Amino acid sequence: MPERLKGILLASTGASLWGLMGIFTRTLGDAGYGSVEIAYLRCLLAGIGLMAFYAVKNPQVLRVDKGGLCISLLFGAVTFSVGFLSYAFALQRIPVAMAAVLSFMSPVWVCLIGRVVFRDRIAPRQMAAIALCLLGAVLITNLLGVQDMRFDLLGMAAAVLNGLGVALQLLVPRYFAQRVQRDAMLAYGFLGAAAVLGLFAGHGRILRSL
Fold first, then answer.
1. Which residues make Cβ contacts (< 8 Å) with residue 208, sequence separation at least 6?
2. What is the dihedral sign for C-alpha 87, 89, 90, 91?
């Protein structure tokens, strides 16, 4: 399979799973879980899963120096915590479909931040795609429906913030690529986020629901 087609399929699969995750997140919210508990469980389970996966498949990935470990933990504590919390908060205030669309504006932020930080060139086709993404976000959130404004500004802002967090999750590992492997940053980053969120999560609530 050509690498380009494989990349498109993986991106499509990721978007589908992200939307499905929104449904499960909404279900946990209806069951009494707060935004912090949902984000905490997401980070903790993802971190444990990745650590186990790399420990079996490629242990070398997990061997980083103290500096790289600190970078990875801090990376996760900031980007994952902010991203997951904002997404869970958005789902409490706006529909899943709207939250998914606004969150998946992350490619727009990747292009714009990459242009500023890495001096990446934005091709005319990419500029057109960015314009279409912004137009789609405006239409799906009904920003032009002045007479029937049923959207929640805080929920929408949280969804956009999540998209920005996803963009940083892609760009920060690139910035530190010469220092730490991307896979290591992801694995330790999830645990770093879980450690921070665990300070505020209601563990009693989680245990009682098991």
1. none
2. positive
Q: Which residues contact 194 (CB under 8 A, 6 or more apart)?
A: 40, 43, 44, 47
Longest dimension (CA), the chain: 58
Q: Which of 75-84, 114-123, 187-196 has the highest mean pLDDT?
A: 187-196
Dist. CA 186–CA 189, nearest whole Å: 5
The reported pTM is 0.71
Tally: H helices and E strands in the chain: 9, 0
b/e for 12-39, b at 16 or more Cβ within 10 A?
A: eeeeeeebeebeebbebbeeebbbbbbb
- Select the more confidently predicted residue: 52 or 134: 52
